[in-house]
Every structure is written in C-alpha cells, then in structure tokens.
Amino acid sequence: MTIDLIIKKFAHNHPESDTTLLLLAYEFAEEAHRGQTRKSGEPYIQHPLHTAFMLTQIKADLETIVAGLLHDVPEDTSYNIDDIKKNFGSEIAFLVAGITKLGKIKYRGIERYRENLKKMFLAMAQDVRVIFIKFCDRIHNLRTIEYLPHEKQIRIAKETLEIYSPIAGLLGMWRLKWQMDDICFKCLYPDEFAKLEHKYEVEKKAERNQFFLKVKNELVSKLEVASIGYNMEMRFKHLYSIWQKMRAKNRKFNEIYDVFAVRIIVPTIDDCYKVLGIIHSTWRPQQERFKDYIAMPKPNGYRSLHTTVFGPEGKSTEFQIRTQEMNEESIYGLAAHWYYKAKMHNDDTIKHQPAWIKDIVMLQKDMKDTNNFIKEAKIDLFRNRIFVFSPKGDVFELPESSTPIDFAYAVHTDIGNKAVGARINEKITTIDQELKNGDMVEIIIEKNRQYPNRDWLKFVKTKHARDRIRQFAKPSTLKNIKDFFLRK
Ligand code: MN
C-alpha cells in the first residue's frame, strides 16, 4: 500500500479537498514507526496505510483518514498525543486519542468483554468516526492474523464476532461486517469454512453464473424499452451468514443457498418502482416477500425495494432494487449516510446520528455502573428495532417486542402515566400486546388518572418506560405510612 493510492482514492471521493494533510500525516507516521516491523515482517507503516486506505473506501472524511494514518503513533512510538495535537490540531488528536483508549483493556474473560463493549459504545456516542477507524484497524489485523500465535488468533476472532461485528451491523456497515465475519469464521472453524467455500466457489459457481445470465437476458430488453439505465449484479452470499443459517435452522447447504439474489441499481426512486413493476409482470411474486424499505426505511436508515419471485425455471429469485445513493448507504452504512449529508449541506460535523446513538449518550449519563450499562445497552440496542406510527403519522423507533406502554412513554410521559388502553391499527387491544413494524398505535388515556401501574414493569421493554414507571408509580402503602410518620 502506498500513500499515493490513498490520496488518489480520497481525491476521487472529495474532488475539492486539499490533500496536503494526508501526505504530512504519512511522513509523520512513517518517521515515527521507522525501523518497526509487523509480525508478518512488513514495515510497520503498512498497517496504518492499509487502515487509511480502507477508510477511503468507506468514503470517510479527511480528518478520519489522517487519524487512521496516525492511529498507532501514541501507543507504539516516542511521540504522544500532544505531538499530534501540535502538528495536526485538536480534532485529529481527539480521534487518535479515542482509538488509543479503545485499545487499552485491562480485564480478562467476561469482564474484558463487558469493558470492551462499553468502550465501543461510549466512543461511538462521542464521535462515531472513532469506530470507523477501529473497524478498519481491526480488519487489517484480521487479514494478517495468521502471523500471530494461535491463542491470540482465537481471542481476536472471538472478540470480533462478539463485539465488532454486531456493532458494524447496528451501524449498517454491512461490507465491513461481512469482511470481519468471514475472516473470523475461517479462523475459528477452518474445516467448515473450507467445506462451504468449496461448495460455493467451486461446485456452484458455473450454475450461479448461468442462472444470472438467464435472469438478465429476460429483463434487459424490457428495461431498455422503458429506457431505464441500470446496473445489475449478482449478490454474493457470505459464507459465515450461510453457515449461521444452516445451524440456526438446521438446514442443508442447498436449502439455504437456493434463493438466488440479484441487485439492480437504477438512477431514480421512480425507476425503482418501474423496475419492480417489470419484475412482477415477468415472474410471479411470492406472497409476503415484498418489502418497501424506500417508503418505510429500516431503523438504521436502510432503504431498498425487496421482492422474491418464482424466477426462471420456477426458482426462487430475490431482487433488491435501489438507487446508487441507497446502495452506497447499504454498503457503507452510517459512514456513507453521513458523507452524503455532509456533502449536501456542506457540513463538516456529524450531526446526523441515528436515534439509538443518542440513546447511548442518555444511557451513559445515568449509568454509573458498568454491568448495568452493558445490560441495558444490550437489551435496548442489540435487539432489532421497529418503527411504529402515531395516528398523526409521527414515526417512533422502538426495540423489537415493545408494547403500547413503551410507545406511550416514547410519545410523552403524561401519555404513559395516563394510559388505560390501546388501539393497534384501529383495533382495541391490550396494553401489553407486542408491537410489529409498521403498526399504527393509538393510546387511550384517562384524563384523571394520576399514576402508572407498577405491574407494567413486568412487560415493558424499554429502559425509558421502566424508569418513568418507577418514578411515577403510586408509592406502596408501606411507603405511604412511613412518609406519613416521617412528616409528622
Ligand atoms: Mn492498529
């Protein structure tokens, strides 16, 4: 890897930016690491260079890439954070310090896991760019993992699957996630990996390519008649995700593999729906396999149309239809989202964080105890998120299996406190009913009601609702009596 490649790639993504700082950071890091080598025998500077290059691939901004080049300087060389601050300013020093802090983990075993997770969350809450750098750092370390002692390999691979990969998923950074997953899979289960790889890459390859051509041939002329510019690609399945599905559902490779997946990228949202129409009039759609994530994006911002049809030869064929912007967002996740927004608004700071990142900040503020923090963070954040609507059409993001009471408290504390019933999609229901994505929820309140019901604690799913219920629930009789005597 060379700094020239990084500068070229960065200039391509950000044509108007000044790249001088990249060269300066490279020279600084190169001098600082001079004489050091990696376990692979390569000069050490190759590691920060690879990290920085991956950051240009996710279209990170200048400060992030500079920090990527410098990320191991304070840890491993005679220069410290102050030297970086003097030479590159406080923003870059802040990012580098963030990475350095993430690296320092004292504990072993389960404690180590907890501390690690907490540090990731807190870093993310402060500046998510620190996490982008950490991911790229980790991926390069994984790519060169074979040079490490076996025990260390296992530890790093496990830690990546348990902590880094789920967080990459939360951030919608699928490409990074899959890269991490497949390397760790190979490291932890070499035999299974080899078997699957052979099946997928060797046995099934020709079949896959032929089928793709069939699909493409049937669609091309129709797309041309409709004069829609398109880019069609076969979607590759990732070995680790195939393997996980095989294990979770106890299925054979062919049953999982059999859904063939195609992605079509078109210029506009309008074109997305036109292409959908063409596909549905060519092959019979499968019921309940159509998802409009453009009209209703996923909580992490993911947008696309999904449909599965009985394709050529009656084979299940899944299509994802989206614009170029949506595609980049789905590959790079939050990084791309942020990049597009920043580009549009000419805005250099991250202000566009998904709601759950703000949740972490809140959580961190009222959680002093690490164990509790992790418990809450895991419950609220590693659960899938759903969207529900108020009757006015306002959208609320909640963890999966939330109830009308969670919703009520998300709307307003007063609505929660006075709730007596709920309607879901205009049907009367109980207040502990599990909500589904897309539900319209209306809370029935009793104006004179003063306290929430303590029994709600048994079924609410969000920490927010739990906290409010505890805060406002009618004190128990015993406490009343105590208060009564204390007052006297
Ligand atoms: Mn590093």
CATH architecture annotation of the largest domain: Orthogonal Bundle
- The rounded distance between the terminal residues' Cα atoms is 78 Å
Give the mean pLDDT: 84
Global outline: globular
**DSSP helical segment count:** 24
CATH class of the largest domain: Mainly Alpha
> Structural class, please?
alpha+beta
Instruction: Kindly give the count of domains.
Output: 3
Q: Give start-end ranges of low-pLDDT stretches.
A: 340-352
Cα gyration radius (Å): 26 Å
How many extended strands? 11
- CATH topology of the largest domain, which one? Hypothetical protein af1432
- Percent of sequence in beta strands: 5-15%
Q: CATH superfamily assignment of the largest domain? A: Hypothetical protein af1432
Q: Name the ligand types.
A: manganese (II) ion
Largest sheet, in brief, is:
6 strands, mixed
State the helicity in percent bands.
55-70%
Notes on the structure:
This protein is α+β, with helices and mostly antiparallel strands and 488 residues long. The chain has three domains: 3-188, Hypothetical protein af1432, CATH 1.10.3210.10; 196-345, 2-Layer Sandwich (Beta Polymerase, domain 2); 383-478, Ubiquitin-like (UB roll) (Roll). The chain is 58% helix and 11% strand. It has helices at residues 3-13, 20-33, 46-57, 62-70, 73-76, 81-88, 90-103, 109-126, 128-143, 150-170, 174-188, 190-203, 205-225, 239-249, 253-257, 269-282, 324-332, 334-345, 355-365, 370-381, 404-411, 413-417, 463-472, 477-487; strands at residues 231-234, 260-266, 284-285, 291-292, 305-310, 316-323, 385-389, 395-399, 419-424, 427-429, 441-445. The N and C termini lie far apart (78 Å). The structure holds manganese (II) ion (MN). Manganese (II) ion binds at residues 47, 71-72, 137.
